[in-house]
Amino acid sequence: MPDTHVTITGNLTDDPEVTFTPSGQAVCNFRLAVTPRIKDGDGWKDGDTSFFRITAWRQLAEHVGDSLSKGDRVIVQGQLRMRAWETPEGDKRSVIEVTAEEIGPSLRWATAKPERASKSNGKPAGQVNDDPPF
């Protein structure tokens, strides 16, 4: 499913978890809950909640870990990716994830004050090659 871009708005279900690969690359994982509002007569009701696993790499991963926490409403833009594996018992499993290219707080019900990130590798923030290692 390469090149399938999506934009998702939802709430973080837990604090983002930032870890590092053996080569030192930061990777951040979190789940996003998305609950649609459905017209119900003269009012509205919550629809079924969908959960999406989001992965961010390098500087974006570190910025997410420093900036966001459980319950925050965010907008994620990225690519859908399918990952498949086999369990030790021999069962085949797969999951569809979003590899984030951009993540930001939703300003619909909150405010935020952007702060420019520090430089990395001698290049201004945002000028670093942030392509994920696929």
Overview of the structural elements:
The protein has 134 residues and is mainly β. The protein has a single domain, classed as Nucleic acid-binding proteins (OB fold (Dihydrolipoamide Acetyltransferase, E2P), Beta Barrel), CATH 2.40.50. Helix content is 7%, strand content 49%. The protein is built from one helix and eight strands; from the N terminus they run E-E-E-E-E-E-H-E-E. The protein has one helix spanning 58-67, and strands spanning 5-12, 17-20, 26-34, 37-40, 43-46, 50-57, 73-86, 92-105. It has a five-stranded mixed beta barrel. The chain has a two-stranded antiparallel ribbon with strand order 4-5. The longest helix has 10 residues, at 58-67. The two termini are 13 Å apart. Residues 122-128 have low confidence and may be disordered.
In brief, what are we looking at here?
This protein is mainly beta. Helices cover 7% and strands 49% of the residues.
Corresponding CATH superfamily: Nucleic acid-binding proteins
Query: What do we call the CATH topology?
Result: OB fold (Dihydrolipoamide Acetyltransferase, E2P)
Number of strands: 8
Average pLDDT: 86
Total of helices: 1
What would you call the shape?
flat
Unreliable runs, pLDDT <50, ≥5 residues? 122-128
Oligomer: single chain
Tell me which CATH architecture applies here: Beta Barrel
